[in-house]
């Protein structure tokens, strides 16, 4: 922690993005980059056509040889003094399903596939890669309540459901408001960062990026990109188990992580 503190300091204009894995980090990186650079990029110069979003906005852990201490992963802005932090949350059932697919992709060939039953059991008993999930979300949720001018809390489902409003909110938080509602610039940002576009770009079909000692193909970050895919994988018992844990963990916090379906 001390070493981390002494090596990492936010500059005044840095924007810190935080999210639990598989909650839409790739999207958030693409969106923020596109918003911040929308004036100085013509189509052919859009760096997202040449690099995967994780290369454009590298993950902090890529620079470290070990896992970040819990204190930092829970509230890095508080630890490092960042003035602008955007957190993206996602409903737990889609997060579990996305994580389960991701896990099986990463370990393909090396171990037998993890069953969805095991993945849900493990999540419901509080064990998850990069966990604990709820403590992570709630840490940032509380931070956003304490410092609303400095911490913006977004939800994947709201970005999908009302993309223009959410992108306007994000841009205004980043100090890059859209002056007009009719010139098509919000739509352009959304399109440039969209799942459909990014997934089809050559750069994201090939190549790999290093994450926490793993060599991950660019394709792995683009699976389905929808809300409610959990319905295709979870039984009603599994969904109930996750809902129960979610209800208990979020009780009295004022936060909901619904999928709106
Ligand atoms: P699914 O597995 O449900 O499809 P992360 O970026 O944190 O690893 O999260 C990955 C999830 O975000 C995956 O969800 C992925 O498909 C989805 N995703 C990636 N890029 C996206 C985009 N531009 N828009 C919406 N969802 C996206």
UniProtKB/TrEMBL annotation:
Keywords: Transferase. Pfam families: Sulfotransfer_1. Residues 13-253 form the Sulfotransferase domain. Transmembrane segments: none annotated. The keyword Cell cycle does not apply. GO terms for molecular function: sulfotransferase activity. It comes from the Eukaryota. It is an enzyme of class 2 (transferase). Its EC number is 2.8.2.-. SUPFAM superfamilies: P-loop containing nucleoside triphosphate hydrolases (SSF52540). PANTHER family: SULFOTRANSFERASE SULT. Belongs to the sulfotransferase 1 family. This is Sulfotransferase.
């Amino acid at each position: 922690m001390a070493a981390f503190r002494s090596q990492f300091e936010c500059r005044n204009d840095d924007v810190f993005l935080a999210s639990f894995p598989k909650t839409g980090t790739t999207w958030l990186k693409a969106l923020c980059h596109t918003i911040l650079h929308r004036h100085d990029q013509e189509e052919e110069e859009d760096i997202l056509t040449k690099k995967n979003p994780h290369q454009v906005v590298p993950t902090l852990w890529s620079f470290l040889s070990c896992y970040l201490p819990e204190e930092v992963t829970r509230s890095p802005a508080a630890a490092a003094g960042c003035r602008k932090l955007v957190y993206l949350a996602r409903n737990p059932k889609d997060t579990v399903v996305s994580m389960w697919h991701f896990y099986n992709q990463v370990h393909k060939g090396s171990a037998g596939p993890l069953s969805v039953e095991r993945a849900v059991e493990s999540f419901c008993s509080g064990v998850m890669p990069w966990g604990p999930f709820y403590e992570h979300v709630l840490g940032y949720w509380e931070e956003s309540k304490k410092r609303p001018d400095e911490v913006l809390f977004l939800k994947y489902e709201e970005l999908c459901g009302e993309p223009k409003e959410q992108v306007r909110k994000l841009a205004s938080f980043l100090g890059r408001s859209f002056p007009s509602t009719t010139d098509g610039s919000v739509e352009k940002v959304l399109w440039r960062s969209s799942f459909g576009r990014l997934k089809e770009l050559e750069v994201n079909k090939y190549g790999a990026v290093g994450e926490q000692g793993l060599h991950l193909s660019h394709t792995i970050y683009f699976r389905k990109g929808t809300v409610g895919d959990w319905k295709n994988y979870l039984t009603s018992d599994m969904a109930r188990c996750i809902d129960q844990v979610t209800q208990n963990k979020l009780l009295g916090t004022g936060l909901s992580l619904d999928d709106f379906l």
